[in-house]
Amino acid sequence: MPLPSAELDARRATVRAAPSGSVAVVDETALLDASAVAAHAGESLRSGRTSWRSLPADIALVAGAGDDEAAVRRLVAGWAGQDEDTVARRARVLHRDELGAALRPELWSLVAEHRRAGHRVVVTGHAPRPVLAPLAEDLGADELVTTEVEVRDGTLTGEVAGPVLVDGDGSAKAAALAAAHDGQPTFVYAGPSSPALLDAGERPLVVTPRATTCGDRPVLTVAERGGTLATPGDVLRTAGFYGALLGGASAGAAVGLARRSRRQMVDLASSVTGDLGLALAGIDVDVRGAEHLWSARPCVFVFNHQSKLDVALLMKLLRGGFTGVAKAEAASIPLWGQMFSLAGVAFVERGNARQSKEALEPAVRKMRDEGWSLAIAPEGTRSPTPRLGPFKKGAFHIAMQAGVPMVPIVIHDAGEVMWRGHQTLRGGTVHVDVLPPVDTSEWSVATMNDHVADVRARFVATLEGTP
């Protein structure tokens, strides 16, 4: 994910220069621009699981006060008697819907560099293990050193197992890290409030969204994530974008009615929304390999899905002559749902293979008979972080059955201008790589797993900037 910063580039170069096998410790205070404990307390409040005794303290925690040892113990106590898998499942959902949006992309980029350099990545934190486990998994971390919880026969007891790794200066984390590892870590990334943890590494780096000095320790200043609250500028950008969407739909409807062509109506609306909407939102699109958008049509375009903005990006890139696939719930989204229906988008129900096949048949016929292309996200849903999710096989079967090529569209930073959980747009540049068409003429059902793995590997290599 391109992050234009000379300072960050210098940090990447330092990572690459370190020998393979070096240890990089990344603390949650560096990774997240939010409190993971507070996020889980908020989820408990919303779901009605918070006890009346914990209510005042958890409300204060969600409001931004009191993320301390008592807050961790209250959270763990609320899990008493609950199945370990149930708690883990809720943590994954909250990571997907909320905490993923608080992940700092600069740290994601540095962790990816460490992994490419063959370093061992250790995530530390004071939040309980079930809370941070999904984040560590998404990062591809080798180890998680954090507050442990007591489990008996697959059920949480509500007690902490060992120390709560929260204190005034990060000493508890440093002690736990020293107990788990021999020798001094090469790199440590943490917030300015954790000097003891930072001092545990040969090369400490203070990570903060605010310009500050921390003695002689180097500082990496990262961008504010902003949470879900919009600035006035974000509101204006978003209003301009949706105004263009409405205007494009109106213009397309007028032309389509005059020419009695639904296809022309949809194509014009797509082009206007993609060009004007993104321009009014202050979003530029930098495309490499644009020639592949046209050289192999009709085809199946596959793209990685991080943001609600991906639809508008596809409208700008593909212009017209295409339709798509969306989850059944998308049909009820105001304005978007109506546009999707007019464009012949196939609405599929997750987990219903028979309905999905029936819904996709008209799209496959249009590819064969009318030369339309199809755009589909093989991950099936938006990913909470830049990590690429597993690919489903539907798009691959469609390309094979229709006898058309597959064109990968790799979107790098859509999540930075409209992240999961955000309803407003931020200005910026989205970088897109359109890869050469993939020939599907020799594909078969027997070799499908190999083709899925091959195309996904191309996405991974492009996202990570590897050859």
Automatic annotation (TrEMBL):
Catalytic activity of the protein: a 1-acyl-sn-glycero-3-phosphate + an acyl-CoA = a 1,2-diacyl-sn-glycero-3-phosphate + CoA
Gene3D superfamilies recorded: HAD superfamily/HAD-like
Phospholipid/glycerol acyltransferase domain mapped to chain residues: 299-414
Keywords: Acyltransferase, Lipid biosynthesis, Lipid metabolism, Phospholipid biosynthesis, Phospholipid metabolism, Transferase
Record-linked SMART domains: PlsC
This enzyme's EC code(s): 2.3.1.51
Domain of life: Bacteria
Family classification: Belongs to the 1-acyl-sn-glycerol-3-phosphate acyltransferase family.
Enzyme class: transferase
UniProt feature coiled coil, ranges: none
Record flagged with keyword Transferase: yes
GO MF annotation terms: 1-acylglycerol-3-phosphate O-acyltransferase activity
Organism this protein belongs to: Actinomycetospora chibensis
Entry-linked InterPro entries: AGP_acyltrans, HAD-like_sf, HAD_sf, Plipid/glycerol_acylTrfase
Domain topic, free-text comment: The HXXXXD motif is essential for acyltransferase activity and may constitute the binding site for the phosphate moiety of the glycerol-3-phosphate.
CDD domains: LPLAT_AGPAT-like (cd07989)
Signal peptide, first to last residue: none
Annotated SUPFAM superfamilies: Glycerol-3-phosphate (1)-acyltransferase (SSF69593), HAD-like (SSF56784)
Protein name: 1-acyl-sn-glycerol-3-phosphate acyltransferase
